[in-house]
Amino acid sequence: MAELVGGFGTSHSLILVMEPEDWSARAEFDRTISHPFRGETLSFAELAERRTDKDYAALAELPARRAHAQRNQTAIDALGDAIRELDPDVLVVIGDDQEEWYSAAMQPAITIYHGDKLLNSAYDPEDHKHKHPSIQMVESKRHTPEDTYYPVAAELATHMAETATANGFEITASRDIPFDRKGKPIGIGHAFTFIYRRVLRDRPIPLVPILVNTFYPPNRPLPSRCFQFGQILGDAIRSWESDRRVAVVGSGGLSHFVIDEEWDRRMLRAMADGNYAPLIEEDDGIFRSGTSEVKNWIIMLGAISRSDFEMELIDYVPCYRSEAGTGTAMGFAVWH
Ligand SMILES: [Fe+2]
Fold first, then answer.
1. What percent of the chain is predicted at pLDDT more than 70?
2. For residue 135, is pLDDT > 90?
3. Which one in 202, 208, 264, 287 has a CA-CA gap of 20 to 30 Å to 56?
4. 211 C-alpha to center of ligand 1: Å?
5. pTM
6. What separation in Å is there between the alpha carbon of 189 and the centre of ligand 1?
């Protein structure tokens, strides 16, 4: 039988591939939208007024941003090294789909892709010409110069889909890469390309991609269901008739676009203690906007919950970019 050899959690935010000087562009955007925060929705001004516990303006200044950016890069390198050291044959990657493969026309809660290859589509400047220059730069790094196909561990993916269905999770199965309106195949989303390009440094390991709708109502899976689904994935790995070594990755998070250090640290402590109740029982209303991506970690934790791994927190880096405490809190951790 296959062996479950470890777990990983990593943020995948676009500011991880942005220069700290450009984070201000995202802060400008933050000023124009309302923000879910601890169960409420607040304007930027209301948020700034509410958040007086820290000097967020100072934390968002360039020297602090540069220090945070440096820590992020060191942490991602360490995570990539940890994966190479563990040397799994297959990586199961749990990532949210943000209208990449999914659309309003079809928005499954959870999809297991079991085709034999995945596409990272070539960067096409035409597709991004109306975006901010810093976002164009991010997109050029997420995509590859040419269309690139990556191998998928289709046999394990199929076994996972069968195991999930047999255990009461009627997940969506996808075997073909979808096409856009112009007839072009659609590349896999940001939660996955970040792993390929930056964490694995373009040296892909066969993957099982699991796409989760963490963002969009009305069918966001609850944290408790995410954990149960993860447990079934873990069972599927251990019952796969293969001698392959498999690791699981949760991609995304932590709190954003309002950083909530207190919440992140409480969740990370629960993970380190192996006491997942605070995560599973957390009010679903907290998992809004980018913070919803923590559900990808919860699925990963479910998968490894029956193993006796220890968590090693590589780093937790709250990357502030405005005086209202907006930004993205980055988390990087290994279970082995
Ligand atoms: Fe994301």
1. 100
2. no
3. 287
4. 12
5. 0.97
6. 9
CATH topology of domain 3-335: Protocatechuate 4,5-dioxygenase; Chain B (3.40.830)
Q: State pLDDT tens for residues 81-97.
A: 999 999 999 999 999 99
Give the residue extent of every domain in the chain: 3-335
Whole-number Å distance, alpha carbon 157 to ligand 1 midpoint, is: 22
Work out the angle at residue 25's Cα, subtended by the Cα atoms of residues 23 and 26, and round it to the nearest 5 degrees: 70
The Å distance, Cα 215 to ligand 1 centre, comes to: 9
Residue 26 has pLDDT above 90, yes or no: no
Distances (CA, A) of 233 to 44, 167, 197, 246, 272: 40, 10, 25, 11, 21
Q: Which two tokens stand for residue 156?
A: 């394990």
Q: Is the pLDDT of residue 127 over 90?
A: no
Query: What is the C-alpha to C-alpha distance for residues 6 and 3, in angstroms, rounded to an integer?
Result: 9
Distance 288 CA to ligand 1 centre (A): 12
| CB-side neighbour CA atoms (13 Å) of 96 | 29
DSSP notation for 52-109? -SS-HHHHTSHHHHHHHHHHHHHHHHHHHHHHHHH--SEEEEEEE-SSSS-BTTB--S
